[in-house]
Amino acid sequence: GEKMLPLILNGATLTGLRAFLTRAFRHPVSDAVLARYELLVQSSKDAGLSAEAAMRNVVEAVLCSPHFLYNQPLDDSPANSAWALASRLSYFLWNSPPDDTLLQLAASGELEQPAVIAAQVRRMLADKKVERFGIDFAGQWLGLRKVGAMLPDPKLYPDYDPVLEASMRRETEELFRNILVEN
């Protein structure tokens, strides 16, 4: 999405629109969906808006779409299962949309092969983005977000400070990440 937005907003309106929508919705868009967004661009321009303002309207509409907001499968057809798998893997391990590699493997259908899935999981676990998963999962599972909610008595624990508190949280997150990555 971040790579596409400047392209879309800087005048390459309709040519990059399908690629932008595919990236934002995490699956290929139908001609009917593309036509609705093209119509929004055209009606915005007809109302006197610049090409950039028209594309900003498209971006706003995309950000409000359930296909952007929710990680929902299109339907149960085999053609869509690779795209859904790419999203589930990415949001589970990275807390982010699928990267170019996952999207390309979904488009080719290769992502559904067990060996490819295993290779992608290993690649994703080796990426720094996996830290997001560790922080979020450990924060929920172990209640790390509550660390510091009830401060200890400073007379009993005079060395307790914000640095120690952050270190306690980070050490637990790192241990969880190490167990996850090292199996």
Description:
This protein has 10 helices and no strands. 68% of the residues lie in helices and 0% in strands. The two termini are 32 Å apart. α9 (130-141) packs across α10 (162-182). The chain is an all-alpha fold.
Lay out the secondary structure.
Blueprint: H1 4-9, H2 13-25, H3 31-46, H4 51-64, H5 66-69, H6 78-94, H7 100-108, H8 114-126, H9 130-141, H10 162-182
Helix pairs in contact: 2-3, 2-4, 3-4, 6-7, 9-10
Q: Could you list some keywords that capture this structure?
A:
single chain; 183 residues; mainly alpha; 10 helices
- Residue ranges: pLDDT <50 for 5 or more in a row? 4-12
Distance between the termini: 32 Å
Integer-rounded radius of gyration: 22 Å
Determine the structural class based on helices, strands and strand pairing. mainly alpha
> What percentage of amino acids are in beta strands?
under 5%
- For the secondary structure, the number of strands is 0
Outline the biggest β-sheet: none
N-to-C series of helices and strands: HHHHHHHHHH
* Global shape: flat
Portion in helices: 55-70%
Mean pLDDT: 83
Q: Please, how many helices?
A: 10
